[in-house]
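User: I'm writing a tutorial on reading structure tokens. Could you give me a worked example: one chain, its sequence, then its tokens, then a sentence or two explaining what the tokens reveal?
Assistant: Sure. Here is the example chain.
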Amino acid sequence: MHSLGPVTVSLEELRASLVSFDKLDEAFGPSSLGILIVQDLPSQYSELRCRLLSYASYLANLPSHVLESLSLPEAKYLTGWSHGKEALKSGSYDTQKGSFYVNCDFYHGAERSKPANDAYSEYPELTASNVWPPEDSLPGFRQCFEELCSLVIDTAVLVARACDRYAISKVEGYEPGYLERVVRTSATTKARLLHYYPTPANAHVDLSITTDERLGQGEQDLDTWCTTHIDHGCLTGLTSAVYIDESAHPPTLASSQGSSPPPAPLPFLSGAPDPDSGLHIRSRTGVITKIKIPSDCLAFQTGETLQLITGGKFQAVPHFVRGSADGGQVARNTLAVFTQPGLEEVVDHETGKTYAQFCREVAERFT
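And here are its predicted structure tokens:
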């Protein structure tokens, strides 16, 4: 019998390899919600989360010329700042959220200043060098971003180790330590800092906006902030989202001369103003479940590559984000870290398919 909510484990259980196969099956298996909550994180996590998710609002409200300088069309707007560039199935462009994408090669040390896999020039979104706001525009942003992402990847490594133990036992021919090695060493892991703009009062919801993963007629008016989709990497690390009343606490920075201290974290609401807004998962049985990630925890979702790697023992789950219907000036901010194999990694050992080939297949689905 599977629980109604996500499975929770402690960081120490992961470190000590004490997470049972039953728990992993309940978290990621064929009848699961495809999500695992990790609690008892390092003490610095909460402060880093508060700071970075506040930065998301400060970033989204920087002057337009600064944001424009952070946009990289040559990387398909998947490195740096992106707003209104993501095409939806209706043919319109998504202006309800802004994203700041970062390639996480810094996890391997400062000496590697740009992602590896230079031979794969057709994948600039995974190989482009990062672009950062000038320090005088957003003091402390880069350091905070890199520190929090490194903590998320550290935790993902431990989740991957647990998945490896399971797969060695359950998947014929599974390479010992494969997923941990991929998560630990990949130069293509991508972080996405998300700012969901406040929903205007009396905003029109375009019910024609759908995706190939759209499930069921009754869901069409639910995924107003992020349409139903599955992730394509291995494990996606997620922070708990925060909600900020930007009318009461405007995320603007005072102009400065010379160096300035990092901006103060913004006050967060105690919860979503609309109880139905936030992250939702569509289960294998068709049940829609709202997921609440505790503020002091991380969540990890399964991606399609993990499904390939494990021969379907772990499966990717469709999910979406429902917007707030209150029409107030409340923004939602969160961070997602997509751990992905290197482009040369084989992700389907039966066919020899590499992650580069898989990425090409994914792109073809939406063209």
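What the tokens reveal: The CA atoms of residues 238 and 336 lie 5 Å apart. The first strand starts at residue 7 and ends at 10.
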